[in-house]
Design brief:
single chain, 7 helices, 8-stranded mixed sheet
Amino acid sequence: MSGAEAAEIQAVVIGAGQAGLSGAYHLRRTGFEPERDFVVLDHNPGPGGAWRYRWPSLTYDRVHGMHSLPGMELTDADPARPSSEVITEYFARYERTFDLRVRRPVKVRAVREGTGGRLLVETSAGTWSTRTLINATGTWDRPFWPRYEGQETFLGRQLHTAHYPGPEAFAGQRVVVVGGGASATQHLLEIAPYAADTTWVTRRPPVFREGPFDEEAGRAAVALVEERVRRGLPPRSVVSVTGLPLNDAIRRGLADGVLDRQPMFDRITPEGVEWKDGRRVTADVILWATGFRPAVDHLTPLRLREPGGGIRLEGTRAVADPRVHLVGYGPSASTVGANRAGRAAVRDVRRLLAEERVTV
């Protein structure tokens, strides 16, 4: 569909996870009507965002810092239920309550320059011509797989956190878990009782954090991530600067040797992994708990990336194009950060549209 045939609208929200729903809520709350003034596009077959795909053993009581969406608390959730079920049902109820009319499944293929100062959002369901864009595509669709010598020769199974099936799938197997974040430690603690053997490897020694993670510490961590984004560098996760919480489960894992961290191996062999000093570990599975990257390839035609490889933001607004807002990106990747970013993005969207009306 060409730009001339595109449906005209004031704002397009891409993604219906925490950040996208927050943005849609604030658009609705400030007088924008869904379908008339804005549209929410989501590539998933149903509500829940990335939470739909969390492994079954990640129960709600093990979710770190899930923050309710604006305007509707998440209450009375059974802590023993899988988080994928609890949060998916909550998101679905939220969409119905505020009549957000999310369109799905819709795959956004590209966002490019249109005519008359508009952006063209090209999708599997047609094209929208919009004044502004709130991009809330998160990271789940871009799992990061590091490359190591010999990786293609490994005779066992390699999988990423994004496809983690739960601990029972590793029964009787020798498992190497790669990564220094919360997912890696969760996987190890779950898998160890089932596996024949586990080995934990990380590029840097893990940093464990004792004591409560209070509001001041949270602000300091977000500020470090935000500084990278302001400089146009690829964002690091908030977790990467907060350290790992030293809770009872982690303490047990350290005491019984499950969390006995090894330095990163140098190569992968058909039978396992190997270090330069000749030490080897035989493995049936390599589980890459190596994080994710922002899913923003559809924005490539707008040339938003800085020489440093990231998209430089002022608040949520892309410096290279003030019509584009990124929420759930960098410092707003946490659930509470996503809520705040949605509100901030809508405030800027309204200001930009008001300025356009004045100048026309």
